[in-house]
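sorry for the late reply, my laptop died twice this morning and i had to redo everyting from scratch. anyway the thing you sent over, i finally got around to it. pasting the sequence first so we're on the same page, its 341 residues, then the predicted structure underneath. double check i copied it right bc i was rushing
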Amino acid sequence: MGSFFYKKSLIVVNFLYYLQKIGIIYGALNWYLYKDLVDLRKPMNHQLELHLEAFIASLDIRSSSKNTYQRQLKEFFLWSSRVKEESLSREHIIRYKDYLKTEQKLAAFTIGSYLTSVRRFFEWLETAHLHANVARGIKGPNRKRGFKKDALTVDQVKMILSSIERKTLTGKRDFALINLMIRTGLRTIEIARSLKEDVRKLGGETVLYIHGKGRDAKDELVVLTPATLEPLSDYIDARKSTHEDPLFASHSTKNFGMALTTRSVSRIVKQRFKKVNLDDSRLTAHSLRHTAITLSLLAGATAQEARSMARHADINTTLIYAHNINRIKDAPEKKIDELLE
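ok and here's the structure:
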């Protein structure tokens, strides 16, 4: 009798063992076949990241801009993963905007950039019939009027340039660099991209072809006057550079001869400012661009001429400089004083 129950128990145990093996095989097969499909157990808003690659591929923009969209949207997906609702709504996008401001403490310009990425993503989702465009009409925060950086005065420009000793190679470079930015309004990225071969002749004038902001090629230029060209040539000759070398190079042991990065340009300018006690958060390398545009208008250039040098996409940007100059020059406060005297 005991033997009979033992045999029955053994049969049951073996049967359960085989069922377990079949279950494991089935589970593995099921995972392999359906691992790439959307996990329907997750809320719909958690599945939006699956469409990121297709969205990025649909954008007809530069690779650097695609990288920006991808980085900013991944930040949005990380935030939305904490949303418990089944799908996102307009209220969620507004909450995300508040999150960028209050928790991330991003500047208004940066928040606007993040929201642009989100808006374009939901526009694409709606066009592809994947999700309602819940970001339509969501505005970025109001930006402060005017510029974040200050321009230098004429006296400050002269003080900085006269403080740079030009006997050493580094002194020659720093003088030529800052002098060029003051007289042409070049951006740090345009400096970093410039090569010696970009200095050419055009219509009897020496010019520097530049790879401008938002451009795909070196199809813009600035004129190099004798006061700009002389110290630049002095530096190039002292460096004994080849035709294909960067216009401005690092002099450090580790990176000698390599092109200056935008960070290096900013650091060099800031150090030169500090040496003449111009240590202010509103005075940076970008201040030299503001200085060039402001000085051109003060010297009598028209807004259109100043725009051509600065390569502003919108002349209204140039007109802000003209407005600021006229606001000080023709200040109505002064007229009130004259009336009351």
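Residues 154-332 form a domain with the hpI Integrase; Chain A fold (CATH 1.10.443.10).
thats about all i looked at so far, will dig more tmrw
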